[in-house]
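Standup notes, protein team

Yesterday: finished cleaning the Celeribacter indicus set.
Today: SsDNA-specific exonuclease RecJ structure.
Blockers: none.

Input for SsDNA-specific exonuclease RecJ:
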Amino acid sequence: MILLTGTQRDRLLANGRDRDQDHIPVVKFFNPFGAGVWLATELDDGGDIMFGLADLGYPELGSWSLEELRSVRLPFGMGIERDLLFTGDFPISVWAEAARETGSIRAAEQRLYRLGASLPHTSSYNESRIP
């Protein structure tokens, strides 16, 4: 599977050059066989180091290598996957807070989309969404 589309790469690079913002996650990666979820908001100019929210048993903001994600080999010849239906919808700070409260990104996702209509949405928030 292609882990990043050209559009996603461009948005992540742009976000990486504008680090003082509370970006909406551009892409979600996951381990289809167990623990491991990553919400990426930024990519460095070198094209490898991503920033966002990672959950390998406990959610935390930080950086990781895209190449390392690509190199992971799972059973049946599979690797880390990109969630094709993921839309982000909330700034990374909202994701991080929900993940800490619920204990995981997966539980936070359920909570956020269940309660999403009641969360504030600013115009800059809506304009930064990727189609």
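Follow-up from PR in the comments: Residues 6-127 form one domain.
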